[in-house]
């Protein structure tokens, strides 16, 4: 739940209320009515109006900035990998770091007998 006075950005207009998508606003009130789908009252200074908006239509400015920074960093790393012909870096970026750590770790390959022995032990428990 967002706090009163927080700076937010309107990211969508789910109920087609002609919200100024992409504009900044400030949370000025909560709408606690259980019969209403709107969560917040947002003041948008640029259009000099208050809007009732659901929680999905607004996002914190800090969150959007961090998402944009991550996207730009990823694009820069991809450009660097392509420019230096670093195939390993390129594959790691495109597949994600988590997957590369999993594939880079040592895997215990069990023999068929060890696998059957392990299953039989679990069956007795």
The strand order across the widest sheet is 4-3-2-1-5
How does the major sheet shape up? 5 strands, antiparallel
Unreliable stretches covering 5 or more consecutive residues = none
Q: How many helices does DSSP assign?
A: 4
Number of strands: 5
The rounded Rg comes to: 25 Å
Q: Give the strand content.
A: 15-25%
Explain what this protein looks like in three dimensions.
The protein starts with 6 loop residues before the first strand and ends with a helix. A five-stranded antiparallel sheet has the order 4-3-2-1-5. The model has no long low-confidence stretch (mean pLDDT 84). The protein has 125 residues and is α+β, with helices and mostly antiparallel strands. The chain is flat. A hairpin with a 4-residue loop joins strand 3 (40-44) and strand 4 (49-53). Helices cover 42% and strands 19% of the residues.
């Amino acid at each position: 739940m967002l706090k009163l006075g927080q700076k937010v950005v309107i990211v969508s207009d789910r109920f087609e209320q002609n919200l100024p998508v992409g504009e900044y606003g400030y949370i000025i009130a909560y709408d606690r009515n259980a019969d209403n789908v709107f969560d917040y009252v947002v003041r948008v200074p640029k259009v000099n109006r208050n809007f009732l908006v659901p929680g999905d239509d607004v996002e914190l400015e800090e969150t959007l900035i961090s998402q944009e920074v991550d996207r730009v960093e990823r694009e820069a790393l991809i450009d660097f990998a392509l420019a230096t012909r670093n195939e390993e870096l390129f594959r790691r970026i495109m597949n994600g770091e988590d997957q590369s750590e999993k594939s880079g770790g040592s895997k215990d390959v069990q023999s068929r007998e060890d696998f059957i022995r392990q299953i039989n032990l679990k069956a007795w428990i």
